[in-house]
Request: fold
Amino acid sequence: MKLEELGFSNWFIENSETEHLAEMRVARVTAVNRDNFLIRNGDKELTAEVAGKLLFAAESKEDMPTVGDWVVVNYFDDNALAIIHDLLPRKSLLKRKTSGKTVDFQLIATNIDTAFIMQSLDQNYNLRRFERYMVMAAEGNIEQVLLLSKSDLMSTEQLESVLSEVTSRFENVTVFAYSAKTGIGIKPIVDYIQPAKTYCLLGSSGVGKTTLLNKLLNDEEFAINEVRVSDSRGRHTTTRRQLILLDNGGMIIDSPGMRELGNFAIETGIDETFDEITILAQKCRFNDCTHVNEPGCAVIEAIENENLDEDRYNNFIRLRKESDYYERSYLKKRRRDKEFGKMVKSVMKHKKKNKF
Reply:
């Protein structure tokens, strides 16, 4: 297998400043384990560890390898083990806020061409959640495709109504509805996947990501858990992110379901996802208009004239406020971390000086 079949292109070389490419080889990260990584080169998949220099130089989690990354490695023990010395530039990056109260980034995957954003046609269905995932993907420079699973739960008329609602809300986004149970709608998704392109499955637990993956693999390779009938929520079937090769040459990254999806530092993603609001905002009287209560706000005027969906506007405001809050908290945390780092260096320097 050639590296190009794994998605490698001259873009990564042309945008790289690494000093190691001349004497080392390139491979792609296919899985992240607790203590090591799996990488795939043109020949095989093998275990890799991070060089101490790269680990020491990393200022945040974003500087460490994750699934989808192209890395510069050298090999030991007859190519049984690899050491990762550097990361090549990323064409795209999918990340979210860490779950819980801690405000930091969690990397999901990199170098993704298209995100399959999934919802099931049961109690999981929620247009605002679609927008939240779309903002995250758009911020990472990733194309979005919306998948509606479990279409067998609806009548033909109900399904047509939902599809009309989704396509009118997201006019420029491809939408597929399908049923893994009946097989209806699976083939168009398979046909959409192209060789040497990387896709990822995003969605809450229980929407059918693992079931779809098994369909794409024509196999029951991955275990499936039942969904609770009471709230349509499922247990995590996928326990780690991994890049999987499909028979047609495409690649897909499966990831654990996200019950909490926080975003911050997503200005570009919001602008692209809510592009009609971004266009309206250019007509506001004030350049720093918050679109909440300012006079001469073209966005508020559009709502009053029923030219803008109010529910979509409310989600836009909600996501922007959430992002601003988390970003302020993140910057405050970074300042504290830097101050703590300076203090530690000062103490160590003082101890070393007094030792002599």
Summary: The longest strand covers residues 25-32.
